[in-house]
Design brief:
alpha/beta, 8-stranded mixed beta sheet, 17 helices, ATPase_ArsA/GET3, ArsA family ATPase, ArsA/GET3_ATPase-like, P-loop_NTPase
Length: 374
Amino acid sequence: MPDALNLDAIVADPGTRIVVCCGAGGVGKTTTAAALALRAAERHGRRTVVLTIDPARRLAQALGLVELDNSPRLVSGFDPSAGGELHAMMLDMKRTFDEVVLAHTDPVRAQEIFANPFYQAMSSTFAGTQEYMAMEKLGQLHARGEWDLIVVDTPPSRSALDFLDAPARLSRFLDGRMLRLLMAPARGGRSLFSLATAAVGVFSRAVQKILGAQLLADLSGFVAALDSMFGGFRQRAEETYQVLQNRETAFLVVAAPEPDAIREAGYFAQRLRQERMPLAGLVLNRVHGTAIPELTAAASLAAAHQLESAVGHQGVADVLRVHATVARRADRERLVAGRFADEFPDVATVSVTAQPVDVHDLDGLRLIGENLAV
């Protein structure tokens, strides 16, 4: 049996500065992140911010907010008696990208970048931008030093850990052969567009013919902006990556006792180990059990069969059948969850009992927090 995961000790520890919740979709990851953040603020007096990279609105609804945006918002309704605060925010990758531009260029140059069609496309839809900006935003929050605890709710898919690749992927992008060819003239003071219009070089003429003069001008301006703007981003991303590997960070894999979710949990656990990230444990949500675990499904059905013909005992027989159904489900869930335990016997685990209704407010989050603290 794996050790019990003491999440209360983790979120109460002043040495824990970042908690990252990752896992498949539909397993209660957002609820887990919100419940931990709330408990850290209310029970342990920590100034906490929960950051979601998932564009769904579940976090805002559970915290009683109309919406979330790229800036931390104070959550009202929580108990401040312990001295803590709770803030929440949702990653806006374009706004974060814009903030990077504004922070590392002058206002005039920033407006030129914002107007560039290539920048507009990359900041909104370019593959990998969300992961780059998630790393940037997490780095910003950590560097500000005003939060005791940052809880990160990652996207509901395997891409949830893609932000770990941000430094390497950005390096490959900036060091790519084609990008170097495009950026070299810009660094030398002559744009690729000017070289092309002067009909200098076979490569330049070919690129102009394929892309067109205006598009090439936009591209040249964009790569020049990259050269000046991203010089420090790679370094910041690498610094944030190192923070994630430190003991001040705790990764939680969140799953449900279902085959697909447990399979995904195994993937996340393996990936975190490969990246040498501190895996604190597994949160197993929506677990079913019975009030009388020693009464097996088989014994319950046998007793129901004996009572069904007895006068006045039909109600008891029905209750026993319901118990048998729940017991069978609990047995099946233990078997499925055991696959993860067999593969990762040293990963501590905490189980959260399935709730009769969905969590949609602070009281529901407090109840989940109590379950997580057991």
